Structures are given as structure tokens and as C-alpha cells.
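Hey team,

Sharing the HTH lacI-type domain-containing protein run so nobody has to redo it. Sequence (366 residues) first:
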Amino acid sequence: MAPRLNDVARVAGVSPTAVSLVLRGEHGSRVSAETARRIQEAARRLNYVPNRMARGLVTRRSGMIGLWVPFHGPLLLNFFLGQLLAGVQHVAQERGFDLVLYSEPQEAGARYGSIPAQRLASSSVIDGLLLVSTRYTTPESLHGNLDRLAELGMPFVVANHWPPVSSRYSCVGIAEDERIRLALNHLVGLGHQRILLLGGDPSSVTAQKAWQAFREQARAQSVDREWYDTAGGRWYLEGGYDESRAYTAVFRKLLAGSQATAILAMSDEMAIGALRALRERGMRVPADMSVMGCDDIILASYVDPPITTLRSPAFQMGVTAAEILLAQLNGDSRPQQVMLHSELVVRASTGPYGQREESPEAPAAP
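Structure output:
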């Protein structure tokens, strides 16, 4: 016979109520840390698994957290999102919650998915919602749908988005202006004045923030201000946050002729696409063009040359977002805005401007 909650209480030497509170993660200060440890140890020893249906009848909760991710290419191959979801799973598993993934496929001709606020909020399947990677969502859609979720009473946290959409809503993200400042400090410090920004569609939320921050900071740091005076035609490329679109964008730019000496890609996937385009055009990295990425995915250190990048705390973002959401479910409705920070990782894909290596001479005939 499967162990019951009363069995855990007997082994731990506590009341069934204490067991229920601890295993639901709702004990707070009502149960001491030592008692909570004994209860968790007893549950592990007995291989106790809570009856979700029975618990739901009492608590009116499903014990499930929803994650909404707009459809954008092969989701499971996206390293950043994979790390973020792993962080969410880490917290959820510790607290006895399961995850439900929602993904909206793009309609024909549509560039971004929209948040199905009404359907998600009326779902009896989930207790709360994490909205992940709203960078693929237009500003109008994002603001309207978050307001709708709040009106319908669905607890939610926005992850991978900064600055916060509103002071009323909880948000965890990485500041685009800080990332761009770190990147430009590195590239301009190497002598690069004409830099291409490889990003997403300018109509998306995060791409707009990156576009604006890049132009302002590049004009402030660069002596070649004229390069950045145009609306972006010279220095902005849409790479779609994936290798193939970035490859096409960079290849076409090179065919058309460009005086840039460095590329800043807002994801490592796009940086990898840029490396391929440069290689096929016979250009050397970093001798002819420096390339820099963002996120520090696993492949960034294995491609040739290894990519200089900005390491993003994706796992910690998932952990923090999940903890804030579970706090909401336990009655803490205070909006929390948490900004995480990137770290510069210098590798071989960036180098000083003007120090171009001579091509190796062919070996002399014997």
C-alpha cells in the first residue's frame, strides 16, 4: 500500500497538519527549520507522493505552474531558454509543483505570438503563470495582455524582460543597456568605431530597447558619430535570434559593402551565423572583423574562433522568477522587480582594430 500523509507524520513525530504545510511549502514560521527537515526526510524515506487530486480539493489548487513561451523556432534547442526553464523546474520540484508548458504557434504572416490571457487565466489546470521571453512580443500586445491577466486574477511573473512593464507587476530580467555598455566598452576599447548591431525585429519589445541603447551609447563612446546618425540602415541588421537568419543578414550586408570592423550580436546563435557568413566571404575573425555574442551558450566556446560573449544568468533568472511566483501563491502580492547582471567573457573572436595579420605565405617548392 502506498504511504499516506499520516504515515509521514508518524515517522517524523509531528501532526498531519505540519506535514501538509511543509510539503506544500506554506509553513513559513509556523514550523521550525529542524521540524521541516525531519518531515522532508521522512517523506523521502517513505517515498511519499502527495495525492494531487485530494490536495486540490482541500487547497483549491492544482499544484501546477504554467510557463508561456511564444513560439520561435526549435524551442528545445534554445540553450538560454533551456537554462531558464531548468531554473524554474529546480524550484518547482523542491516545492512540489509540476510545470505545464504553453506555446503559441505563429499564424501565417504573423511575426510574434500573442499572450492568450483569457484562456490562460480561466484555466483550472494552473495556479500561476510565468511569461517567458516576451522579447518576441510587440509592446502593445504585452501591455494589454498583462493588464488582462491581472484583471482576471491570475498570479504571474514576467521573466527575461527588462525594464519592468509596470511597477504593478513582478519582473525578472537582464538590463539591455547594461549588456550593451559592457559590449561597447570592450569593442571600443579595442579601437573599433564602426560596429554593426545584429538583433531581432525592431518592432519587438527587447529589440527596441537594444536598438535605442546601442545608438545612444555608441554615439557617446565613438569618435565616428556620423556612422550612428542614420536611423539604423548602416549599423542595424535583423538576425531573428537564430543562426540562419543572422547568416543571411550578415552575408547580404557584406555583399553590399560595409565599412564596419566589428559585429555585436544579441545572441550567440546569431554570432555563430555571422561567423559562417564572414568565413564564406573569405574574411578572418578577428583579423578582418571582430564578432561578439550574448548569453554564453555551450557552443560559444567550441566554435572556431571561440566567441567573446556576455554570460547571462539564465538559470538564476528561472530560479528567481519561480520563487517570486510561489511567494505570490502564498499570499505575498507585493510586485518585485529583480535585475540580474551579465559578465564579460573574452575569447578569440574579438581583437584590436588595425592589427591585421599577414596571410601566411605558401611554402616554397622543394
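The mean pLDDT is 84.

Ping me if you want the raw files.
A.
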